[in-house]
Amino acid sequence: MEILTVNSKDTLKFNPQLFGLWIGMASIVMLFGALTSAYIVKQGASNWFNIKVPSIFYISTGIIIVSSITLHFASVSYTKSLESIYKILLGATFILGLVFFVLQYKGWNMLFESGVDLKSNVAGSFFYLITGAHALHLFGGMGALVATIINAFVLRFGNDDKRKTRLEMLVHYWHFMGILWIYLLGFILFIK
Amino acid sequence: MASVETLTREDVLIKEQGFNDHFHDHHHGDKYQTGFLGHYVFSMDHKVIARQFLITGIFWAVVGAAMSIIFRLQLGFPEESMAWLKPLLGKWIEVTDGVGKLSPEFYYALVTMHGTILVFFVLTAGLSGTFSNLLIPLQLGARDMASPFLNMLSYWFFFMAGMVMLYSLFISTGPFSGGWTAYPPLSALPQASQGSGSGMTLWLVSLTLFVVSVLLGGINYITTVLNLRTKGMSLFRMPLTIWAFFVTAVIGVLSFPVLASGFFMLIFDRSLGTSFFLNEIFIGGQALDRVGGSAILYQHLFWFLGHPEVYIIILPAMGIVSEVLSVHARKPIFGYTAMILSILAIAFLSFIVWAHHMFMSGVNPFISNFFVVFTLIIAVPSAIKVFNWITTLYGGNIRLNTAMLYAIGFISMFISGGLTGIFLGNSAIDIQLHDTYFVVAHFHIVMGVAAFFGMFAGIYHWYPKMYSRFMDETLGKVHFWLTMVGAYLVFWPMHYIGMAGVPRRYYSFDTFDAFKHFDTLNKFITIAAIIVFIGQLIFVVNFFYSIWKGKKMTTQNPYGATTLEWTTPIEPIHGNWPGNLPTVHRWAYDYNKDEREFVTQVEPAKEGEVVDH
Asked: For B499-508, how does the pLDDT look when each residue is reduced to its tens digit (9 = 90+)?
């Protein structure tokens, strides 16, 4: 996609692509805000079972935090033109991302085996819906990460503005997904 | 490109004072404009996309209005045979002994589709999609939107949403028929009614695509307004149209995701057997095993979008009206800053009043008090805006062309419809008035007709910027008077029957003694509605006739307006300005200042002149 940034130098306070992403993230906040508000409203009504969250979700939380750190340093090494470290850290982030998905999947299975299925109680339905919606959004981030990795290995290493912006967008979105996950897990654990 | 002889004062100013962004150094233009597909279909030029939104909106407006005529025939003339509609409606007209009856299921489907189509496809996409696209870059001095590609996607998602909805009209069980708000359980259980099956599935798919369209469009509008303004165009020099579109986009981006979350839960309930919105339901005497959910929860999620949605519809109309009034009254808009603050206040309040749609749905009456108070407070910024519009007209040198007539008509509609809102905002009066024709009359006048008036004002006013020609003024005035008088004749009587308690959405009142004596009034409303509908066909003919045969635009700035779109060439080009981008030196409303009728925004300030307000 081509972005017209021609007159941006004069009025611009912020890169328009990055700014657009932030507006998109604001709308994602509203989506999860709505889901968690609905959770509170429903919880206040009758017929609600408290779920015991499988501990594997704590490990996945750790993984997503570490992946944010590796991606952060990938971005730092890109700016410093440390090509090989940049590639390694991008790859590491990708693997950590995959591990996160696997752990989430295992967590859902464990929850299912403990007797909490999608249908029987609304508390369970909410848990699967909210964590599933988060996984779906992170999947979008994985797509962007894969595109970045392909670029990193196929294109000649260069420090141009366009690529820098794209990397910056990926980093912001990835951190956002991490913070969102911590919020969602904390919400489910502490709102009782 | 203008030749040397035809250079206007503004052309010269832009040439001398504007700045070169090197846009025309590379040939972007060719990439977008060569070939039929690139130019007319998958265009990335904001002016083409605006026209795509408008023409698609007109198509849907005709379809939605035709539906209302069919169900008005049922309400006005329940005894008459509708067999003559059989070629159009097929099996939905049941003919027995030569007398054709509209099927009650299809009546509900028509009411549902009329609401969905008009609210989302016409008054959201057709109104803010058209004018945000057309005017944001032109009035801000930008070459195009921040992301022309996302802009194109926004239109095509809207188009796909429309196609899915259109398809749902033709399936054997018919389109969704549970009302445009799609409350569960009718929307959550495929077996609940005929339209709840495939019709509802397609409705959900269509509106999910529509949400994507609104989000892509909104992200683009906000980014463009905040980042791509030309030199000198500070936020408080922007025309009120842009303020309105900007705030509309912000509301859309924040409220549509909430609707999406409700849709996701609905999809889970429909397909995966969850019970977010379902509790202890019997269908055909059989108890379902779906327990633990709450139908009210969906209503909260729906109206958290639903109420901001009515401001998504009305704010662009307000912005357009402010601009058109000021231009054709040859006066600066009265209270520019107050107008902006009112828009912001309305936007803020729109998020904390949603439960006034649910006073009778079983929400706690003490919580209702909170919503009553904030609902009534909306009257304050609304009244400020009305006062400012009327004061702008006061003492103006008014040109009564069609655009101006519609702008003035908008004020009339907004006052009449707004006042009944004060009745409905009270939870106590709502016990009598909820779900009656009083509600129907209220929202049709204040956000249906009024928003249409704003849209018409915009179309007649900016038509030359879209097609380089004018629409026919005589036909335009005939259209205006038919619509103005006709709309009141349709909706005024509805207040009366609504106060008498006649409920909305009913197929027939045969069995209700209390409502039988309104049959003459219902006939009257139906006849008025048919006349208004024919009036709209005059507009459609005028619109398409004028694209090719309308009076040609001969000067860049036919109305003597101050804003930047009237400094672009008569024949639109990609990138909007042929050479430099204009530099802005003053606010958008310098009319009748220092002995001059108007001073465009590109004109530098004279020494000691106060250029802002």
From this structure: 999 999 999 9
Which of B146, B215, B279 minimises the CB distance to A3?
A: B146
- Does residue A45 belong to the interface with chain B, where contact is any CB pair within 8 Å? yes
A130 to chain B, closest Cα gap in Å: 10
The domain in which residue B8 lies consists of: 4-280+287-598
ipTM: 0.89
Q: Which residues contact B123 (CB under 8 A, 6 or more apart)?
A: B313, B447, B448, B451, B452, B455
Domains, chain A, with CATH or none: 52-190 (1.20.120.80)
Domain presence at residue B612? no
* pLDDT at residue A11 greater than cutoff 70: no
Residue linked to tokens 């969850």: B274
User: Residues with Cβ < 8 Å from B18, sequence gap 6 or more?
Assistant: B577, B579, B580, B581, B582, B583, B602
Residue B216 in any domain: the answer is yes
Rounded to 5 degrees, what angle do the CA atoms B508, B117, B293 make? 75
Mutate to test the interface with A, among B227, B230, B253 (most CBs of A within 10 A): B227
Q: What is the DSSP letter of B512?
A: -
Instruction: Answer yes or no: do B21 and A33 touch at CB < 8 A.
Output: no
Query: Which residues of chain B lie closer than 8 angstroms to A135, CB-CB?
Result: none
* CA atoms of B212 and B260, how far apart (whole Å): 9
CATH code, B571: 1.20.210.10
pLDDT, tens digit (0-9, with 9 covering 90-100), for B194-238: 999 999 999 999 999 999 999 999 999 999 999 999 999 999 999
CB contact, 8 Å: A28 with chain B? yes
From chain B, pick out residues whose CB is under 8 angstroms from the CB of A119. Answer: 272-275
CB contacts of B264 in chain A (<8 Å) are 129, 133
pLDDT at B37: 74
Residues in chain B where the model's pLDDT stays below 50 = 1-4, 30
Whether omega for the bond prior to residue B185 falls within 30 degrees of 0, making it cis, is yes
**A33 contacts in chain B (CB < 8 Å):** 258
- pLDDT on residue A156: 84
The residues in A 104-163 lying below 8 A from B, measured between CB atoms, are: 118-119, 121-122, 125-126, 129, 133
Q: Determine how many CB atoms are found less than 10 A away from the CB of residue B154.
A: 28
Residue A177's pLDDT is what? 97
pLDDT value, residue B222: 96
Residues in B closer than 8 angstroms to A20, CB to CB, are 146-147, 150, 219-220, 222-223
Q: Are B535 and B476 in contact (CB under 8 A)?
A: no
Residue B91 lies in a domain: yes
Interface test with A, best of B274, B302, B303, B354 (most A CBs within 10 A): B274
CA distance B18 to chain A (A): 12
Specify the number of domains making up chain B.
Answer: 1
Contact of B117 with B64, CB cutoff 8 Å: yes
Could you tell me if residue B171 is inside a domain? yes
